[in-house]
Amino acid sequence: MFPRLPPATRGLIAANVLVYLAQGLTRDSFTGLFALQPIGPYFHVWQLVTYAFLHGSVAHIFFNMFALYMFGGELERYWGAPRFLAYYFASVLAAGGVQLATTYLSGSYESTIGASGGVFGLLLAFAFNFPRQRILLLIPPIPMPAWLFVSVYGVIELFLGVTGSQASVAHFAHLGGMLGGAVVMLYWRLEDRLRRPRC
User: Fold this and answer.
1) Distance from chain centroid for Cα 50
2) Total-model pTM
3) pLDDT for 35-71, tens place per residue?
4) Does the structural domain 2-195 have CATH classification 1.20.1540.10?
5) How far apart are CA 110 and CA 165, in angstroms?
6) Distance from C-alpha of 72 to C-alpha of 146, rounded to nearest angstrom
7) Which of 56, 54, 48, 140 is nearest to 96 (CA)?
């Protein structure tokens, strides 16, 4: 089934897996350079992209890549590869920017890794474009329409972020990915309207 994935989604999954293997082989020696560091002497601009290819555990990369597999392929087939990649990396950048602001305002010095910001952007796009598509949760195994699933997930992320629950998880980065995705889709919709011929 994996080869049936469109090329951009397949490439993103392969890149993430290869980088994760490299992390293990190098004993995370380059993680400090490519993880998203708080604003300061160890922050570099490229980290706003590279952090999204690093992961902290097998479970971390598995769930992110599973979501990329589930939602990325459908969106790439719907949009085409160029627009799909533009959207994904816009979500990654927005998530990184929100996370930088969060760590700065909270005084945190923790670095950030993971593709979750891009993945949450994809979740929003999937719900926006296929709102009635049924999604079956793993735990609990309850089917629900995409718009409801993403709405509930977003509210949970906001609650966990505001209350400081699961401090090791970048909840506001997840929301930043959704925010960046929303801005991109609104921009595309406005652009499409302006391009339509008027009578």
Assistant:
1) 13
2) 0.90
3) 999 999 999 999 999 999 999 899 999 999 999 998 9
4) yes
5) 16
6) 14
7) 48
